[in-house]
Amino acid sequence: MNIQTKYFGEVVIEEKQMIQFPQAIPGFPNQTNFVLLELPNNPIFHVLQSVTDEAVAFIVTNPYHFYKDYAFDLDDSTLELLEIKSEHDILVYVIVSLKEPFTSSTINLQAPIIINQTANKAKQYITNDKVHDTRTPITPSHTKEEK
Amino acid sequence: MLVLTRKLQEAIKIGDDIEIQVVSIDGDQVKLGITAPKQIDIYRKEIYLDIQKENSEAAQVPTDLFDLLQKNSIND
């Protein structure tokens, strides 16, 4: 099927690429279907694009590229909601707040996007710990002490 | 907003499945115990609002700023 995207114009996607967010995303209560789009020549970042609304798209990245030791607990209700049966089902992405200059961009480690790649279901999971920052610097060398 | 006054250990029921209890009071901090079905997410409000705000900002990246991303791809 064809969808309109924020950064890439019209794009052809397959049904099986669609990721369902049963609980939508905080701030975007009507957005329940997304696809992950790749950036040409850029394996580090992807775009999480709404299937229904062209303007709703997030730049996302694998947090472990930047913070190897990033860790958090997933609660049972999330495991159930996303039908997660094994660790291998799980993909973790975080939303990037891109800024100028690029090095001042931040990533949201407080609320990662958890995707079950087998069931194609996902959720933005808000970690209830006080350890992670919603606006963590994308460049760890510029980080102030992690709280 | 419904405002109810509770003492220590007293509780509030919301519908059949949700309960909030005043577990302890320590100075200006009130510890609340919440029982709710697993499917209902519970957050500190300011964290939820913060995530909403950050998501909204992150979704507003204009196209020319996006191009900046392409240029920086190899450095990181």
Describe this structure in words.
The complex is a heterodimer of chains A (147) and B (76). By secondary structure, chain A is mainly β. Helix content of chain A is 4%, strand content 35%. Chain A has 1 helix and 11 strands, in the order ββββββαβββββ. Chain A has one helix at residues 76-81; strands spanning 2-5, 9-12, 19-20, 33-39, 42-50, 57-61, 90-97, 106-107, 113-116, 121-124, 136-137. By secondary structure, chain B is of the alpha+beta class. In chain B, strand 2 (18-26) and strand 3 form a beta hairpin. The model of chain B has no long low-confidence stretch (mean pLDDT 90). Chains A and B meet through strand 5, strand 6, helix 1 and strand 7 of A and helix 1 and helix 2 of B.
- Beta strand % of chain A: 25-35%
Helix and strand composition category of chain B: alpha+beta
Mean pLDDT level of chain B: 90
The helix fraction of chain B, in percent, is: 25-40%
Determine the strand fraction of chain B and express it as a percent band: 25-35%
The helix/strand series of chain B, from N terminus to C terminus, equals EEEHH
